[in-house]
Amino acid sequence: MAVPKRRTSKSRKNKRRTHYKLPKVTLSKDPQTGEWKVPHRANRDEVK
C-alpha cells in the first residue's frame, strides 16, 4: 500500500478542497402567487 513520503500541508489540502461546496439555488418569484420558487418546477395548485 502506498504511503505518503511527506505530510500534506494545510494550504495544499485546502487548495484541493476549494471545490467542495453546495451549488447556489436560483429562486424566481411566481407571478401568480408572488412566492419564491425554484424555476421549472410545477406548483402544487397547477398540478390538480
What does this structure look like?
With 48 residues, this protein is an alpha+beta fold. 23% of the residues lie in helices and 8% in strands. It is built from 2 helices and 2 strands. It has a two-stranded antiparallel sheet. A hairpin with a 6-residue loop joins β1 and β2. The mean pLDDT is 85.
pLDDT < 50 runs, ≥5 residues: none
- Residue share in helix: 10-25%
Class from secondary-structure proportions? alpha+beta
SSE string, helices as H and strands as E: HEEH
- Average pLDDT value? 85
Please give the largest β-sheet.
2 strands, antiparallel
Overall shape: it is: rod-shaped
Q: Numbering strands along the chain, what is their spatial order in the largest sheet?
A: 1-2
Chain oligomer state: single chain
Task: Please count the helical segments.
Answer: 2
* N- to C-terminal distance: 59 Å
Strand content: 5-15%
- CA-atom Rg in angstroms: 22 Å
Number of strands: 2
What does this entry show, briefly?
Helices cover 23% and strands 8% of the residues. The chain is α+β, with helices and mostly antiparallel strands. It has a two-stranded antiparallel ribbon.
Key terms for this structure?
alpha+beta, 48 residues
Write the layout of secondary structure elements.
Layout: H1 10-16, E1 28-29, E2 36-37, H2 44-47
Antiparallel strand pairs: 1-2
